[in-house]
Every structure is written in structure tokens, then in C-alpha cells.
């Protein structure tokens, strides 16, 4: 008789929960001005410097995972200039390809909509990412509920502070 | 006027009669022999500076708590970043890339014209992906060769399952991996290659290690894979039901002489394929050097079950075990008022609730199928008036376990 399969199987893949959609977004720090800007799993950013442009894919815990930049000889060789909008577009194309080749299909833009509207480089960068097949939104994670865990039979309810407790805020 | 004088003047007042008559302490009006300076606080304690031979006690200055701004100006990200151990390159050195060639004037002109119109699209396939970050992100090196190790891909390795090309972590359906992939190994001169396909997450046995799904050794340089010695036959990766995505890596080793790997490897049974790659590598470290790596991810589909059946095994069904949801300890008198029905529900035995759900479902069950009513509560208006809110909610709620009254995926 062959040895039995383990009762408790552990998948060591660190990206499994994210792929399956079980990983929750981090909520940011409580007293931060803009809490939402930490609430992502992957985000893409274009960093423009004096002589170069770089596109990054950032993971909320591991930091920069993938990058494409005009510092790479193969890219800058084919470009006219390292700093124009066309370079930003092409960097986006390379970065999108690398993301898809690594099984990363969803990422949030790190620049705000205003910033994107203001800058031609950013606009072309994110448009190219989208047209190459990277989705610039992240799907909502699956909530822990009775449907996926039958031990979870109760319901969460928000407890709102009453007037008495909020007195010092008034 | 002092209190005593006041009491003398107003004798009828009750307060002045009963209160003790205490005068304010007066500084003596009469000037003493010492003059008014007698009452100065430090008349006798003043240090006389003119006195020459004074032995002072050693002055004890406490060590101050010094806040160095350089220490405190680091951001939270920098503080939280853990500085890992130094990583060791176990592979080959990367060769220097040839220098970029100068563009001619005509070429530059042309490039400028197209890029001004945003029509310059570079050839994406020509760019090499130098990012080792992905492999670290997926912990490929760590789980294969141990912590703090890495190597660069110096030998081109092209692997594809039909149309699905293996890159670095892309998702490939398990059904497409049923046949061995076509592998093209870059020729670099007189040596041998060893190709290993490993499922890093697929070991279902107590024994530690990863599953080797394909092992071909001694592939002569520049020749196809079938010229090598197939130590382990190809078996498609087996991501079991409910275990999510498994990483499957194809690793290329390079060695000068033909080798036979030291622990005897065979592929008779599935459990023989479970080996610790780090151990195998450690034993053959002197001869083997990793030179290339690619990996993909797969998840369960029907082909996994069929393959397991053909091996004479059953397909195991796993389901994800959530950590138990946090809840406060139950108290007879909770500190703050709680919605009593939800609060009490929180501490009921899940088994009991499960029974209740099944009972309620069976009540409504019919021979054919459960009839789902079109309305959540047909008597909504009536019930809203007569029932208390928490009871009414039980009827029309479709969230959480209430959904299971209507739809319970027991059969799936």
C-alpha cells in the first residue's frame, strides 16, 4: 500500500493567496493622512529622473518586484531619447510584458488621476500598460464568510460609538 | 481687618462666633537687631566667594538622554525593512554585454520623427529580462537551494508546452502540461547539461522535499533533450484539488563531465519523486552549477485527477482552512450594549447552527428541487409591523448562513 497523502497539505507558494483572491489589501496606518495609498497588493509607477525613466512594479510587502528602465541598453538603444514621452510609452510596454510573463495581471497605478492628467509621460505610460493587457485595477478579495468556511456561522457587526464616547471629539 | 477684629465688631454673626479666631501670621512689625535682612531667605546660606580655600564636593552630572536626529530621521519603511543576510551567488558570473553601437545621423533623424508622433514602438522581444526580483518574490531560490542563495541565468533556456511558453511565473493550465515540453537549450561550448523539472509545492507526503517531475542528465551541449539520459520520466505536475497554484520550476545545470547523481533516483512510484533539491545539489555541488531557470504556475483541473487515477492513486480533495475569526470573550454583561441576537449568535456552537440550517432546508425541500421563492419575504409589510426587527431579519436576510437556507453547496 502506498503511503498516505498528508491530512494537512501546505502550499508554500507565497503568491498563492493573492492569486486565488484570498489576500486582503493592507489597510494602511491609522493616523496617516492618506490611508488608501497603502492599500494595494501591486502597484505600477513611473519614475522620471533627469536622464532616465524607470517603470516599477511594487509589491506591498516585497517592494520593487519588476522594473523596466531606459538604463537597460537594449531598450535605450532603440529609443530616440531616454526622457521623452515615447520612452515612457515603450517602458510601459516592456513592463507590462514582464508583468504578464510573471503571472501578474492586476496592479494599481501609483499616480493619482490628477497627476496622470497633468503629465503627458504618465498618461502615455498608463495607457500603454492598459493596452498591453495589464488591468489597472485590483479585484476585491473574497471575504471570509459562511460560504467558504462553515465554521464561521456568525455575522460581523459594526459597533458605532455613541455620543457619550465621542464627547471629547465634539 | 483681621478675623479677630471682625468677630469683635460683628458678635451676632454665627460664623464669627463659632469659627476659631486665627490671626494671619504677621511678619514682626518691630525691626529686630539684624534689620530687615534677617528675614531674607538665604541670608546665612549665601556662598562667600572671597573665601579662598574651599573644597567642593565632586559635582554629579547625570548622564543625559541624548536624541540624535540622525537616528530618528529614518522613515518607517526603513525602520521596518529587515536587513537579510548577504546572498550568495551559486551560479556563473554574467558575461559583459557588448557595447552599444552609435546611431548614424539618418537613423537618429528618422527615430526623432517617429518618436515625436508617438509611433516609435521598440521591439519588446529583443529586451532581456534582467529581473531576479521575481524569483525572490516567488521564493524560488529559497525553496530550491536554501536561504540567501541565487544565480543568474547565463544560458538561454526556452521551454514551451505547445503554445504555452514558460517564462517566470506565468499561469499554465495543468491539462496543457500533460506531454513533456519542447526544450531548447543554448549551446555554449563543450560541456553537458542536466535538466530538472520540479514542483516546489506538490509534495503530498510526510517526507520533506519537492517533487521531481522530469530529470534528464548528460545532455550533450547543442543537442536536443532526448539525447540525454532520462533518469526520471516526465510526469505532469499534480496540483491537487483545493491547494491553489503550485510553482513548477525548470532548472538547467551545467557540468564538464557526464555524471550520475549520487542518491539513486528512480520514478517507479509517486513517493520516489519527493526529494530535497537542496540536498541533491549539496551532494553534487562540486560538479553541478546551475545556469538557467524558468518557472510557471498551475492549478487543479481534470487532467490531474486522470493522471492520479492512471498511477493507481486517488485524487485527494483539500479545502482551505481559514484561521478562526477573532471575537471577544463572551461576557454576561458586556461593557458596551450589543445587538443581543448577533452577540449571542457569535458564541453558539457552529455544529448546532449547521444542524439548524439543514433542518430548515429540509423543511422547504421538495422531491424535485428546492423552490426558491421570488420574494425574500412575501408578507413583508405585515411582518414588518408585527415582528421585532431581529426576528424579521431572520426571515428576509440572505447574508451569511441565511443564504444557506436557499442555496447550500453541500453537493459541490
UniProtKB/TrEMBL annotation, chain A:
<comment type="similarity">
    <text>Belongs to the universal ribosomal protein uL18 family.</text>
</comment>
<dbReference type="GO" id="GO:1990904">
    <property type="term" value="C:ribonucleoprotein complex"/>
</dbReference>
<dbReference type="GO" id="GO:0005743">
    <property type="term" value="C:mitochondrial inner membrane"/>
</dbReference>
<dbReference type="InterPro" id="IPR057268">
    <property type="entry name" value="Ribosomal_L18"/>
</dbReference>
<protein>
    <recommendedName>
        <fullName>Large ribosomal subunit protein uL18m</fullName>
    </recommendedName>
</protein>
<keyword id="KW-0496">Mitochondrion</keyword>
<keyword id="KW-0689">Ribosomal protein</keyword>
<dbReference type="GO" id="GO:0003735">
    <property type="term" value="F:structural constituent of ribosome"/>
</dbReference>
<dbReference type="InterPro" id="IPR005484">
    <property type="entry name" value="Ribosomal_uL18_bac/plant/anim"/>
</dbReference>
<dbReference type="GO" id="GO:0008097">
    <property type="term" value="F:5S rRNA binding"/>
</dbReference>
<dbReference type="GO" id="GO:0005840">
    <property type="term" value="C:ribosome"/>
</dbReference>
<dbReference type="GO" id="GO:0006412">
    <property type="term" value="P:translation"/>
</dbReference>
<dbReference type="InterPro" id="IPR036967">
    <property type="entry name" value="Ribosomal_uS11_sf"/>
</dbReference>
<keyword id="KW-0687">Ribonucleoprotein</keyword>
Automatic annotation (TrEMBL), chain B:
<dbReference type="InterPro" id="IPR036610">
    <property type="entry name" value="PEBP-like_sf"/>
</dbReference>
<keyword id="KW-0687">Ribonucleoprotein</keyword>
<dbReference type="GO" id="GO:0005762">
    <property type="term" value="C:mitochondrial large ribosomal subunit"/>
</dbReference>
<keyword id="KW-0175">Coiled coil</keyword>
<keyword id="KW-0496">Mitochondrion</keyword>
<dbReference type="InterPro" id="IPR035810">
    <property type="entry name" value="PEBP_euk"/>
</dbReference>
<dbReference type="Pfam" id="PF01161">
    <property type="entry name" value="PBP"/>
</dbReference>
<dbReference type="InterPro" id="IPR008914">
    <property type="entry name" value="PEBP"/>
</dbReference>
<keyword id="KW-0809">Transit peptide</keyword>
<keyword id="KW-0689">Ribosomal protein</keyword>
<comment type="similarity">
    <text>Belongs to the phosphatidylethanolamine-binding protein family. Mitochondrion-specific ribosomal protein mL38 subfamily.</text>
</comment>
<protein>
    <recommendedName>
        <fullName>Large ribosomal subunit protein mL38</fullName>
    </recommendedName>
</protein>
Amino acid at each position: 500500500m502506498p503511503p498516505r497523502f498528508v491530512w494537512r497539505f501546505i502550499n508554500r507558494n507565497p503568491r498563492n493567496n493573492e492569486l486565488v483572491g484570498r489576500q486582503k489589501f493592507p489597510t494602511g496606518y491609522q493616523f496617516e493622512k492618506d490611508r488608501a495609498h497603502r492599500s494595494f497588493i501591486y502597484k505600477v509607477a513611473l519614475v522620471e529622473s533627469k536622464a532616465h525613466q524607470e517603470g516599477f512594479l511594487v509589491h506591498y510587502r516585497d517592494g520593487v518586484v519588476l522594473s523596466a528602465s531606459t538604463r537597460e541598453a537594449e531598450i535605450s538603444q532603440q529609443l530616440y531619447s531616454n526622457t521623452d514621452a515615447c520612452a515612457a510609452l515603450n517602458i510601459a510596454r516592456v513592463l507590462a510584458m514582464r508583468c504578464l510573463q510573471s503571472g501578474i495581471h492586476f496592479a494599481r497605478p501609483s499616480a493619482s488621476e490628477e497627476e496622470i492628467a497633468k503629465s503627458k509621460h504618465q498618461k502615455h505610460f498608463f495607457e500603454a500598460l492598459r493596452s498591453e493587457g495589464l488591468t489597472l485595477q485590483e479585484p476585491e478579495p473574497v471575504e471570509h464568510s459562511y460560504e467558504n468556511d462553515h465554521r464561521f456561522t456568525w455575522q460581523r457587526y459594526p459597533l458605532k460609538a455613541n455620543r457619550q464616547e465621542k464627547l471629547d471629539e465634539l | 481687618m483681621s478675623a479677630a477684629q471682625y468677630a469683635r465688631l460683628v458678635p451676632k454673626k454665627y460664623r464669627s462666633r463659632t469659627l476659631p479666631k486665627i490671626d494671619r501670621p504677621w511678619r514682626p512689625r518691630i525691626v529686630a537687631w539684624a534689620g530687615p535682612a534677617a528675614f531674607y531667605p538665604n541670608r546665612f546660606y549665601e556662598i562667600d566667594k572671597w573665601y579662598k580655600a574651599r573644597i567642593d564636593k565632586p559635582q554629579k552630572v547625570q548622564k543625559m538622554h541624548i536624541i540624535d536626529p540622525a537616528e530618528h530621521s529614518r522613515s518607517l519603511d526603513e525602520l521596518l525593512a529587515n536587513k537579510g543576510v548577504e546572498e550568495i551567488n551559486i551560479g556563473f558570473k554574467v558575461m559583459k554585454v557588448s557595447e552599444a553601437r552609435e546611431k548614424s545621423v539618418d537613423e537618429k533623424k528618422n527615430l526623432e520623427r517617429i518618436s515625436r508622433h508617438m509611433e516609435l514602438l521598440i521591439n519588446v522581444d529583443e529586451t532581456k529580462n534582467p529581473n531576479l526580483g521575481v524569483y525572490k518574490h516567488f521564493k524560488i531560490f529559497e525553496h530550491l537551494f536554501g536561504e540567501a542563495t541565487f544565480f543568474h541565468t547565463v544560458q538561454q533556456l526556452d521551454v514551451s508546452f505547445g503554445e504555452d511558453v514558460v517564462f517566470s511565473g506565468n499561469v499554465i493550465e495543468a491539462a496543457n502540461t500533460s506531454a513533456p515540453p519542447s526544450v531548447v537549450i543554448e549551446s555554449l561550448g563543450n560541456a553537458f547539461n542536466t535538466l530538472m523539472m520540479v514542483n516546489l509545492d506538490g509534495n503530498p507526503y510526510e517526507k520533506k522535499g519537492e517533487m521531481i517531475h522530469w530529470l534528464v542528465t548528460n545532455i550533450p551541449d547543442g543537442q536536443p533533450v532526448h539525447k540525454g539520459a532520462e533518469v526520471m520520466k516526465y510526469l505532469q505536475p499534480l496540483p491537487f484539488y483545493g491547494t491553489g497554484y503550485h510553482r513548477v520550476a525548470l532548472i538547467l545545470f551545467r557540468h564538464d563531465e557526464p555524471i550520475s547523481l549520487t542518491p539513486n533516483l528512480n520514478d517507479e512510484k509517486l513517493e520516489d519523486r519527493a526529494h530535497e533539491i537542496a540536498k541533491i545539489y549539496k551532494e553534487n555541488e562540486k560538479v553541478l552549477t546551475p545556469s538557467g531557470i524558468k518557472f510557471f504556475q498551475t492549478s487543479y483541473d481534470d487532467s490531474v485527477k486522470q493522471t492520479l487515477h492512471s498511477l493507481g492513486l486517488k485524487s485527494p480533495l483539500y479545502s482551505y482552512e481559514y484561521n478562526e475569526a477573532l471575537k471577544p470573550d463572551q461576557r454576561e454583561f458586556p461593557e458596551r450594549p450589543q445587538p443581543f441576537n448577533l452577540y449571542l449568535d457569535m458564541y453558539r456552537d457552529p455544529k448546532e447552527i449547521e444542524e439548524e440550517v439543514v433542518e430548515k432546508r429540509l423543511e422547504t425541500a421538495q422531491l424535485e428541487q428546492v423552490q426558491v421563492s421570488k420574494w425574500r419575504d412575501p408578507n413583508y409589510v405585515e411582518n414588518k409591523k408585527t415582528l421585532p426587527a431581529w426576528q424579521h431579519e431572520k426571515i428576509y436576510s440572505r447574508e451569511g448562513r441565511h443564504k444557506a437556507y436557499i442555496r447550500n453547496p453541500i453537493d459541490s
